[in-house]
Design brief:
The protein has 226 residues and is α+β, with helices and mostly antiparallel strands. Helices cover 40% and strands 20% of the residues.
Amino acid sequence: MLFHQPAHISFGFLRGRAVALDVAADRYYLLAEADAATLAALSKRALDAIDVTCASRLAERGLIGSGPGPAIAPIEMTGLDESALELPGPRERVGTLEAGRAMFGARLSLRAAGLAPTLERWRRLERRIARRQRSASSGSAVSDRDRAAAIARGFAEARMFVPAARRCVPDSLALATCLWRRSAPAELYFGVRLAPFAAHCWVQSGNLLLSDPFDIVREFTPVFEL
């Protein structure tokens, strides 16, 4: 029997378990060890190790799909080694108005449309900006990593003057927007930790964390990537 990964589901493995994120429902699922083993076997296409009964149960819950489709695969992240916010270096100016508009735009979208439509909107934004900038050459001698770090520090400085409580999802979406618009590479992740359970959203470029101090994110395992 064939199974596939639905577009609204992503997952990651941690401590012998699996955590799935259903972005359409804006809900995390902590899966039992047997379910995690089945997902692992499906992702490796290890047909002899697949528990069909367990896989069928996951399909009934909507966490995988029956029939042909996209391959089942966990989220994998480049390991982080340091944070731009804790490294010395220049700041690239990000205006408070720009940071605030990006952040409040993300909050409004999340409140009005929900998580899945907002993430799809940002995915389209990234693609649109990438197409517009694909043929452009900056001619800068500054590396992508250093440029992303400078923008992240500039955004963090601007964010201090935005009168709103910190929330990791809209703040990360706003930072990603500022980075993409300046042709700086960046990935946005949702991750979880266990005991106690917690979820967090952050932005990184390769192995450089851009949105948080290093100690805040190092405990989290990614379950979604934008």
